Amino acid sequence: MNSNVNVNTNLAFNQQVADDFSRAYNEVERRDISDEIREEINIRLTALEAELKKENPNKGRIQRFVDWFKNNANWIFPAIPHIVEAVKKAIGA
């Protein structure tokens, strides 16, 4: 029974992360930013999403994504609380 709770919790969390990525992409589209920056953010969001889905995500790569977002698009963090939580879990923070 306990394993069912863990599976359901993981599925719910995964859905929340997926919803956050959707919100993040929508937020990027709404922002008044250059097409170049928009494309760069979307590329990095897609790469971060792929990295977080891996069985053994690369902690250094994830940290570089987070650092880049902090320096170039820090306005995105309020839209992605579950992604932030997934990142913390992935890098052991």
Describe the structure.
The chain has one domain (2-91). Helices cover 78% and strands 0% of the residues. It has 4 helices and no strands.
- Mind summarizing the main beta sheet? none
Distance between the termini: 29 Å
Order of helices and strands: HHHH
Overall pLDDT level: 86
Strand content: under 5%
Radius of gyration equals: 14 Å
> What number of domains?
1
Topology:
Layout: H1 2-30, H2 35-53, H3 59-72, H4 81-91
Helix pairs in contact: 1-2, 1-4, 2-3
Question: How would you briefly describe this protein structure?
Answer:
It contains four helices and no strands. The chain has 93 residues and is mainly alpha-helical. The chain has one domain.
Features:
single chain; 93 residues; mainly alpha; 0% strand; globular
